[in-house]
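Listing S7. Sequence submitted for prediction.
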Amino acid sequence: MKAWLAATFLVVCSATFIGCATTGRDGLDVAQLPEAVRPDYQLFARRCSKCHSLARPLGSGITDDEVWIAYVNRMRRQPGSGISPQDAGPILRFLHYYSSEQRRLKREHEEASGATATPAYSSNARGTGNETTNR
């Protein structure tokens, strides 16, 4: 019984570990990025993955550069982030590129599907860009 329980535990842990390996820490495929953006992305990936998965900022829905500035400055002040004031510029350049690409892809998808285009979401500096309000 103990051997079966240990084997089951090992399988569950292995499946969890394998699943976690692909949940966003891996980020984007650098080869798919324009060459000019690659160094900025690599710095973003190196610094930002120290504290959280890359899926956190990449999936945040933030499209406003001012919100990204506040976000990166807040993360830069976190102990152990390793983000220097000099790192902020390249990280923000990448995030601007990424947000612009996400808006473009969304627009193209909406046009292809015949859906009515909605304005790009812009959130305030206190939010994450994912909040909804009930009116």
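Caption to Listing S7: primary sequence and predicted structure tokens for the chain studied. DSSP finds five helices and no strands in the chain. The first helix runs from residue 2 to 20.
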